[in-house]
Amino acid sequence: MRVLHLLDTINRGGAEMQALDVCRNAHKYGIELTFVTAQGGAMEKDFRASNAEFIRLSRRLPIDLTLILKLRKIIKDQRIELVQSYQAVDGLHLYLATLNLPVKQILSFQGFISDRKNRQTSRFLIPRMDANIVVSKGLMKWLENNDGLQTSSNFHVIYNGADQKRLAPSGKFLKKELGLSENVSLFGMIGNFYRDRRKDQITLCKSLPKVFTKIENAHCIFAGKIEEGAEEKFQECVDFCEKNGITEKVHFLGGRSDVPDILEALDLFVFSSLHEGLPVAVSESMLANVPMIVSDIEPLLEASGGGKYAEVFPVQNAAILSEKILKLLKNTDLREDLAVRAFKFAAENLSIEAHLRELKKLYYSIL
């Protein structure tokens, strides 16, 4: 089947990594995929090297007629049967590009809807799609209860999935890069600093003084870029660490492309969050055999099998998070058992293979 995916920008993030894993593996499932980006981004080289045909266009206006006409030409020339968008701006351009064409349309909801304009656009598109995808049941409830979107019909839950092959480490050593000895207990969080209420790095920071008091050789890392407008959130974390005298044990790595090497170095992965769809970072941690602690928001409970495959702490509760970190860092057997069980669950439910099997079923059901 001939399918086109559109993603406006391809800077490093969860939705972009999910799209890249799909591009690399879709052909194994009989999906002839054309991937289009309207603005490009830092991951363009990766997408160009994937197994999908890559096309970069240019969007200069919120609703760009030139982009719409170019998309329409690609769809007609390549006899595309189905188009899928990852966010409202993509969905609207594809909707207009496919008017009066025999092409099926899917809109995917990955997570947070940032503003009223995107909510209004989503509200317009949902009943006009042949199918809508949401990456977790928890996100589907959020979209209905908090964003006022109608999700009771024509919505399909398909979990995001990571490609285990992509998670093979390159041989670089993060501890060596940071000047740490091999016996250091290293834990941390991978997630961008966003200006809106998504990731919750400050709660992890607040949990650290107690951890470092109890385990002298422990260090913590934060990996993730700082989105424009999120500088104050990042600085709050830095200021807290300085005020509490723990800066030598906390490492802010910024945006990184070597996630497999970071995961390889971690004894424990912590994902403190306020709002999620179903983060690829969680799938990556499980598939990399890294034991995990997550906040108890519904999508993270869903991603961890109701808390069976990760330790769980109440959202924004730094005191309990400290206890959970100490519990796992002090017990190697417990960490290993948690990692093994989480890997099995993720391989069956949160892998790129599981994702593409469900995606292919949906495609066939509407074609």
Please give the structural blueprint:
Layout: E1 2-9, H1 14-25, E2 32-40, H2 44-48, E3 53-56, H3 65-77, E4 82-85, H4 88-97, E5 104-109, H5 116-125, E6 131-134, H6 137-145, E7 155-157, H7 174-177, E8 185-190, H8 201-214, E9 218-223, H9 231-243, E10 250-254, H10 259-265, E11 268-271, H11 280-287, E12 292-295, H12 298-303, E13 311-313, H13 318-329, H14 332-349, H15 352-366
Parallel strand pairs: 1-2, 1-4, 2-3, 4-5, 5-6, 6-7, 8-9, 8-11, 9-10, 11-12, 12-13
Task: Give a structural overview.
There is one protein chain. With 367 residues, the protein is an alpha/beta fold. It has two domains: 2-161 and 351-366, Rossmann fold; 165-349, Glycogen Phosphorylase B (Rossmann fold, 3-Layer(aba) Sandwich). The protein is built from 15 helices and 13 strands. It has helices spanning 14-25, 44-48, 65-77, 88-97, 116-125, 137-145, 174-177, 201-214, 231-243, 259-265, 280-287, 298-303, 318-329, 332-349, 352-366; strands spanning 2-9, 32-40, 53-56, 82-85, 104-109, 131-134, 155-157, 185-190, 218-223, 250-254, 268-271, 292-295, 311-313. It has a seven-stranded parallel β-sheet, sandwiched between helices. α8 links the parallel β8 (185-190) and β9. α4 crosses α5 and α8 packs across α13. The N and C termini lie close together (9 Å). The mean pLDDT is 96.
